[in-house]
Design brief:
It contains 3 helices and 30 strands. It has 402 residues and is mainly β.
Length: 402
């Protein structure tokens, strides 16, 4: 699986190197430490679409997946978007598919950006931000979010969720996990439902045009609070593209819950629990939810710590080598211990001691390397997994992307 997030962290960690966007399609080579523009034309300035590597500064979601590279860009003179397929070896690109409204009509949603994109299972899974386009620019006009997917063979577009309005009951949504049989995702909303400006105006007996902006936002902020958040965790069957709910919760604690992974029989849910309030103490556990009957059981508990969160650019909780989990336990205020937990064996192995803030924040992995960030997320680096597991963090190789 390859992920791409916001522009400052939009990288694809690949066995061959790191692919990233800088207005052009670029590549960093681990062995040489050099970066290249993915264009083989001599004397090319990479300033127009005549260059296969030219993507433009609004492009996003660049990744090498299978035989091709892909990225998203806004369609010229339109508010629709394009998914571009690139054959790097043949130096050829084409638009695989176009999606979203072109902006020629009012009273519809238009895509304003691709927040996240993940390439897995022959599809790209994307999180889109949208604006509702109206003839009049009113203060209550809304922004929206939606999860979707595109088949990389056919260009078919799938709506994974409906569009959730940020001004309404929407709180958050994200993809959580990608596994052989299922894709896991979560949607957080607010209940009772937050009324739209029009509905709220009707409820208080006034016309929306005369509704007080201050009165409406006071109503929203009084009700859009953590204790009213509802979480729905779902898995998508990769064979049928149908989704089913596997776990629901409400309240503040559901903000720390998600799907770690799913197999043919269970979805594994991670949940942060409050500690006793001393130092950094917190508890995290993983529960297995039976996909057939919904029965739950705890399979592992992290005392005074939790699973090692991955830095922006990948899923927040990812498995190490596709099978294990990295986790930490705090040792006082300043230190922590890093462990590797074998999901299949149910055993833990101590790896090394680290600072409590965690020295190396993982962004992605290959068969033998970890790519991450140092210095509070300002410096990219990579390290061999063999060195990482020994705690030999002096072996990191720092690099910068232009």
């Amino acid at each position: 699986m390859h992920g791409a997030k916001s522009p400052e962290t939009a990288i694809c960690v690949h066995d061959e190197g790191i692919f990233y966007l800088s207005g052009t399609l670029c590549y960093y080579d681990y062995d040489s430490g050099d970066s290249f523009v993915l264009c083989s034309k001599p004397n090319c300035l990479h300033m127009s679409q005549e260059c296969v590597a030219y993507a433009g500064y609004k492009a996003t979601g660049f990744a090498l997946y299978g035989d091709y590279a892909y990225y998203f860009r806004p369609k010229k003179d339109s508010q629709a978007w394009e998914l571009v397929q690139v054959d790097i070896q043949e130096q050829h690109s084409e638009v695989l598919t176009e999606f979203g409204a072109d902006g020629s009509k009012m009273e519809q949603w238009v895509i304003t950006g691709i927040t996240d994109s993940y390439y897995y299972g022959g599809k790209v899974w994307l999180h889109m931000s949208l604006d509702y386009q109206t003839a009049e620019d009113n203060w209550w006009n809304s922004q929206g979010n939606q999860l979707a997917a595109i088949d990389l063979s056919t260009g078919e577009f799938y709506e994974i969720t409906e569009i959730y309005e940020e001004n309404g009951s929407y709180w958050n949504m994200r993809y959580d996990s990608f596994d052989a049989a299922y894709v896991g995702y979560g949607v957080l909303t607010v209940q009772p439902e937050i009324l739209s400006a029009e509905a709220f105006a009707e409820s208080v007996g006034v016309d929306v045009a005369s509704l007080s902006e201050e009165e409406y936002w006071e109503y929203v902020f009084q009700n859009k609070v953590e204790e009213n958040v509802v979480l729905d965790l779902r898995v998508i069957d990769l064979q049928t593209m149908e989704s089913v709910s596997v776990f629901k919760d409400k309240g503040e604690k559901c903000l720390g819950e998600g799907i770690g992974w799913a197999d043919k029989t269970h979805a594994y849910i991670w949940e942060r629990l409050p500690g006793n309030g001393q130092n950094r103490e917190q508890i995290m556990h993983i529960i297995a939810v039976n996909l057939q009957d919904g029965n739950q059981k705890e399979v592992f508990r992290f005392e005074n710590g939790g699973a090692l969160a991955w830095y922006m650019g990948e899923l927040s909780l990812n498995r190490y080598d596709g099978e294990d989990l990295l986790y930490l336990e705090y040792e006082g205020e300043d230190k922590c211990n890093i462990y590797k937990y074998s999901v299949s064996q149910g055993t833990s192995e101590w790896l090394f001691e680290d600072v409590a803030e965690v020295s190396f924040r993982i962004v992605g992995q290959t068969k033998d390397r970890l790519v991450g960030k140092l210095d509070e997320g300002m410096q990219y680096a990579w390290i061999y997994k063999e060195d990482y597991e020994k705690g030999n963090l002096n072996a990191v190789k720092k690099f910068r992307l232009f």
